[in-house]
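Attaching the record inline, Q. Sequence:
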Amino acid sequence: MKYKIRQYAKLEGVKYRAIWNRIQKGQLQTERTASGGIRIIIDEAKEERVAIYCRVSSSENKANLDKQVDRLISYCNAKGWRVEKIIKEIGSGLNDKRKQLEKILIDPTITKIVVEHSDRFSRFGINYIMQLLQMQGRAIEIVNKQTNDRDDLMQDFVSIITSFCSRLYGLRRSKRKTEQLIKELEKENTIS
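Structure, as predicted:
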């Protein structure tokens, strides 16, 4: 792929001058156009755009977010990957409407999403998500994978119990809301 300097700077999220300095240092492959302009040549197959995703379930664990970020940045540095985005989110792993996660999943420029544990990314369906991303030439890197089937089975069991407990609690809450709505409607009908 070939880019004008300004286009590439916008894509990288840096100023024009930063890209110009990288060209001067020989860090970017370039070519001259017939009119004398400079085009930056990027081999898309080599260009790895990495995002790290960190999540905790509640704001009580907010301090752990920064620790997750530090560990994942260290991991990516050790692998030689440049981290493009750092995504931090507070919310349940069972919630399938996490805005920050959705942003990186639909961003086609992110080629690798790095997470510390699979449950930080998603409680269920992570293999489906991995398959879909793989079809796009993208990947999820899980740093700490379950090492034995017993741990994996126990994690699934805990996830299922947590999911059903959450749904039951939600049903009770919606039942109370329904009862409250019925009382309000009855009051309105008795007034009129």
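The beta strands are 2-4, 29-32, 38-41, 50-56, 83-90, 112-115, 139-142. The longest strand covers residues 83-90.

More tomorrow.
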